[in-house]
Amino acid sequence: MNFQNKVALVTGGSNGIGRATALGFASHGAKVVIVDRDTAGGEATAGVIRQRGGDALFVQADVTDAQSVQAYVRKTVEAYGRIDCFHNNAGIEGKIAQTADYEEAMFDAVMAVNVRGVFLGLKYVIGQMLAQKSGGAIVNTASTAGLMGSPGMPAYVASKHAVLGLTKTASGEVARQGIRVNAVCPGPIETRMIQDLQKQLNPENPDKVAANYRASIPLGRYGTADEVANTVLFLCSDIAGNITGAHFVVDGGRTSTPGAVTSMNR
Ligand SMILES: NC(=O)c1ccc[n+]([C@@H]2O[C@H](COP(=O)([O-])OP(=O)(O)OC[C@H]3O[C@@H](n4cnc5c(N)ncnc54)[C@H](O)[C@@H]3O)[C@@H](O)[C@H]2O)c1
Fold it and tell me: Whole domain around residue 31: which residue ranges?
């Protein structure tokens, strides 16, 4: 994979999976723009890239706000002239509650970041890529929650199903202009988000939740942010040139063989 002379934009790049992707793009030669609402984390990620001899810029933005999204696109183009790769990744998990108890404001908050934020990113980055007339590659972060239900997470599950719908639709719209649009579907990944979910599910004993999760994963462990980032880099690279409208699952086998591990161990 070679991203020399390419410009990569990563939302949610201050932490977790987005941070790993930003560092990965930079290590393969890209100039990187990190977008996030977390300024400290974003500046830290950009600082690491610069320390390693790379080129990076942090842009503070709320992905739910159209003006912020237009501004991060504009600032990227002002700094580096173009956008070649886009990891449309910022997301939140929301609260755990069953559908009958789920607070409407929380539903709206999750949909705002995970669906509206992804939609706005697609809208304005695709607009820029079309104007450049030289193609591009986009990866949206969905989740295995975009492929199956998950009791207690109605908003998150609905939002991630929507991300796959946006991915498929946009991919067909811009394929002839050389813009590829794919999605990545991580399972449980070792970041702040999974730790928050564990605490919500069992505040007294989050490690028990982690043990149960791990027991449901054929590979027997959480994935790492780097493992998701590697998939995003692959999908953004020229070696994935014939792949568009697809989703790649990075979940240690959890969705492909539900129950397999427990039945094997019986
Ligand atoms: N960790 C997992 O187990 C897992 C599994 C499947 C999918 N995902 C998805 O991966 C993506 C990244 O999550 P993560 O695990 O790295 O979590 P994370 O919380 O470490 O990172 C998410 C980042 O998004 C940023 N963000 C949130 N709302 C924002 C907003 N309105 N505007 C700008 N930035 C905002 C946060 O500040 C944070 O830096 C999310 O879309 C998440 O749904 C994570």
Answer: 7-189+225-254
